[in-house]
Design brief:
It contains 5 helices and no strands. With 151 residues, the chain is mostly helical. 21% of the residues are buried.
Length: 151
């Protein structure tokens, strides 16, 4: 798996992961904006709540696909052991792995609520906030650190 990922990224696994994770983080910020319009908390003359909610779902589907690709890259190339990252960075790696696992779990739960467990729909804003916060933690603990020179 490591060789496949290395070949697909032309040997620049971290750079590709950072770009994809940054795109996902930007889209996650956009998602918050869309649902603020969708729930009527933000009123814009050029964007109606129904259109914002539809866009939120469509963009969310794309985010899930890219997030799964990044997660597979992380697990397939970097593995699960914090020791692989070495030194003081191992705490950051643990935070990244735990937040990443929590993020994937919460996204799966949110999809379940949207598609099957409609009675839990009243919790969607809270679940969405949790997803956004976890996206932020995952991004900060990897791409954010990389872009700031902490690598």
């Amino acid at each position: 798996m490591e060789d496949l990922i290395d070949n697909l990224t032309n040997g620049n696994v971290t750079g590709v992961k950072v770009v994809l994770a940054s795109v996902v983080m930007a889209l996650a910020i956009y998602q918050v904006f869309l649902m603020a319009v969708g729930y009527g908390k933000l009123k814009l003359p050029y964007l109606k709540p129904k259109a914002a909610s539809f866009a939120h779902r469509s963009v969310g589907d794309a985010i899930v696909v890219v997030t799964v690709v990044v997660a597979v890259m992380c697990m397939g190339y970097f593995g699960f052991e914090a020791d692989d990252h070495g030194g003081d960075d191992s705490r950051g790696a643990v935070v990244h792995m735990v937040a990443g696992a929590g993020l994937l779990t919460l996204i799966a739960f949110k999809i379940g609520v949207v598609r099957w467990w409609h009675r839990l729909g009243r919790f969607l804003p809270l679940i969405g906030i949790g997803v956004f916060v976890l996206f932020g933690i995952v991004w900060l603990s990897s791409a954010g650190s990389y872009l700031s020179g902490g690598q």
